[in-house]
Amino acid sequence: MYHMRIMTCLLLCLFLIGFSCSKGQAEEGPLKIHFIDVDQSDCIFIETPNHKHILVDAGSERYAKKVTQYLQNKGITTLDAMIITHPHHDHIGGVPSLLNSFKIKAFYMPKMTHHTKIYRTLKKSLEKKNIMIFKAKAGNNIEISRHLAIDFIGPVQGKYDNMNDYSYVLKLVYNHNSFLLMGDAGEQSEAELLFKHVNVKADVIKIGHHGADTGTTLPFLKKVNPEAAIISTGRHNYKSIPAPAVINRLRYLKIPTYRTDLLGTIVVTSDGNTISFYYGDALQYIDTLVNE
Q1: What is the per-residue pLDDT across 128-137, written as a single tens digit (0 to 9) for each?
Q2: At 128, phi and psi to the nearest 5?
Q3: Burial state string for 256-286 with b = 16 or more CB within 10 A and e = fewer than 16
Q4: Are the CB atoms for 59 and 41 separated by under 8 Å?
Q5: What range does the domain containing 175 cover?
Q6: Distance CA 221, CA 200 (A)
Q7: Quick check: 102 and 129 in contact, CB under 8 A?
């Protein structure tokens, strides 16, 4: 077991170095972050300027076909990384199907288990494909190029009562622009990030837990101080998400908020200084932020 932990650590380091080797590649076009409309679940597809493809969460099994087609329509056959923020069904349900359609170079998921049928199916699917799970922790990062990295900044503790607080909190930094992806992280995770003085400042935040009032606290939002927010949530969902309290906090701080239940898939682009927002199948323009 000890040797296995060493080997896993070495492989993780090798994978990070492998991404770093792309520094010399020319960066063409913008960074694109696709918040795919998968109803009451999460699925974020990242296209980097140096042609790397990363999926953060895979939605529920109900939307696996939609996600597969979305990626295939872009000519994607390989994902350089798949990052699962935590093993709830609305984040892992699409994984088994996606494993049959795409080559996965590296797979990340927190160090925890979940006693559900879909989690067992996920583990079996990974074993069948001989895909190792990298259990990243706060302080790890994926250095994609000289100007682009994904930092694992949370969770900062190892044990929680609520599974959502095990969610990876990811900070994507591209030159002068930054994006905070909260998974389903809640109030406890947010409080610990603030207590540890983690740099959570970001231009755009993907609101945690689909906008439920389990997090997105006012102190945390003030510290992030985003120029815009994204909420991935479903239409007419039974949980009344996003919660009115969360929407009111965003309005109080005058943070423009874009929601997949109202706009469909949202695509955010960045050239490292300017961020633009588009929505829907025709990618209609919404807004542009300039980092001055």
Answers
A1: 999 999 999 9
A2: -65, -35
A3: ebbbbbebbbbbbbbbbeebbbbbeeeeeeb
A4: yes
A5: 29-290
A6: 9
A7: no
Q: Give the H or E element holding residue 145.
A: strand 141-145
Residue 228: how many CA atoms within 13 Å on its side-chain side? 22
Whether 221 is in a domain gets the answer: yes
Confidence of residue 245 (pLDDT cuts 50, 70, 90): very high
Domain count, the chain: 1
Whether 21 is covered by a domain: the verdict is: no
**Higher local confidence (pLDDT), 224 or 161:** 224
273 DSSP 8-state letter? S
Report the C-alpha gap between 85 and 215 in whole angstroms: 16
| 106 falls within a domain | yes
- pTM of the model as a whole: 0.90
Strands 169-174 and 177-181: antiparallel
Residue 222 CB: number of other CB atoms within 10 A?
Answer: 11
Q: Indicate whether 12 belongs to any domain.
A: no
Q: 99 vs 82, 114, 133, 155, 189, CA distance in Å?
A: 10, 20, 13, 26, 30
Domain of 54, CATH number, reads: 3.60.15.10
